[in-house]
Amino acid sequence: MAAGTTVEPVLETLSRNHLECGICKERYSQPKILACLHSFCQACLEHYHTRRYDGARKISCPLCRQEMLLPEQGVSALKTNFFITSLMADIDLQRQVAQAATTCEICQQTKAVSHRCLDCSRNICRGCLQAHRQFPDLLRHEVATLKDIREGKVALGRKRKNADEPSCEKHPGEVRRFFCETCDVLICRDCTVVDHPSSAGHCYSNRNMASHTRR
Known about the structure:
alpha+beta, 3-stranded antiparallel β-sheet, 10 strands, elongated
């Protein structure tokens, strides 16, 4: 609990200073980057552009007022700021780790949580860690101690490359290895934190398991 108490204010400060849209003052949602390098939520920019320019291809930055041309497809075709999306995913993961005090997300028992499987996106106790290692399909999963994650010793953004697996369009370098039962779509590990969190009611399973059950 002490670790959570120490880490939480730092995460809140990072979120407030770097992860809030300058238009809506809320956490970024699909952050798009302008030529001036300022970023805003896609929906916020679309509303701002419609209100100010009524369909014209130009737009001025809401912060620095630099004027620039939009792509022919409009705001949606602007580059996504993947640095921000990755930072949001890492901060959310650190917050989950910091708050993971006693409940194992595998056995759901009140036990000392010691590790996190970065592929399953679950905090696990030592007993479940042993069981986790006994399944051949899970041997390639990346498992780290909560201590190493808290201390920044684990590269949370490390990406695995596998040409035979479907990549995620929203999070480059990530593989869509999960199936969101709630949204009926394949998602990656970062999606389970940013766009399809279990805390919001999303349910997902292993992609291979889902493919067998839905045949």
